[in-house]
Amino acid sequence: MATYELKINGNTHSVDVDPSTPILWVLRDHLQLVGTKFGCGISQCGACTIHVEGNATRSCQIPVSAIGNKKITTIEGLSKNGDHPVQQAWLEHDVPQCGYCQAGQIMTAAALLDSNPNPTDEDIEATMSGNICRCGTYTRIKAAIKTAAK
Ligand code: FES
Q1: Residues in domain 2Fe-2S ferredoxin-type (predicted)?
Q2: Alpha carbon distance 34, 86 (integer Å)
Q3: Gap between the Cα atoms of 70 and 137, Å rounded
């Protein structure tokens, strides 16, 4: 076990965990930030996507020991009032079906728009292709990203 001071959603959290614990499980099991989902556990589906220093990052394969002072943002911290443009566009387009993958989808989309405010269809497809949705909401996801980019 080791103690880590983690900067998450603008607050510092102290946790005592095994250094090899994936940050996903620190968020979910130790800090009750359960908006970040477990899908595959092998960095293949995108359900666990968070931001690390603003970059979309899969939390299931990153040990807590690798985080250091880097700033983490989870879906709970993406906006203070749920009014992030991507979240608003998700509501407008009624994107989710079962909803399980959507936090990861939104976090990936938000990071895309931070780095590329006017993405082309190809940019969106290339960035979002690693986030799997078993309900097949891809058409609405793409439309919502385009709305959020306006
Ligand atoms: Fe991390 Fe699937 S749970 S990529």
Answers
A1: 2-78
A2: 20
A3: 32
pTM of the model: 0.97
As its CATH architecture, domain 2-77 has: Roll (3.10)
> Where exactly are the structural domains of the chain?
2-77, 85-149
Dihedral, CA atoms, 44, 125, 76, 25, nearest 10 degrees? 10
Q: Which of 42, 100, 105 maximizes ligand 1 atoms within 8 Å of its Cβ, making it the mutation to test the pocket?
A: 42
Would the CB of 28 count as within 6 Å of ligand 1? Answer: no
Of 100, 108, 85, 82, give the one whose Cα is nearest residue 34: 100
Residues 6+ apart with CB under 8 A from 106: 75, 78, 84, 86, 87, 90
Condensed to tens digits (0 to 9), the pLDDT of residues 56-70 reads: 999 999 999 999 999
pLDDT (0 to 100) of residue 80: 77
Q: Domain 85-149: which topology?
A: DNA polymerase; domain 1 (1.10.150)
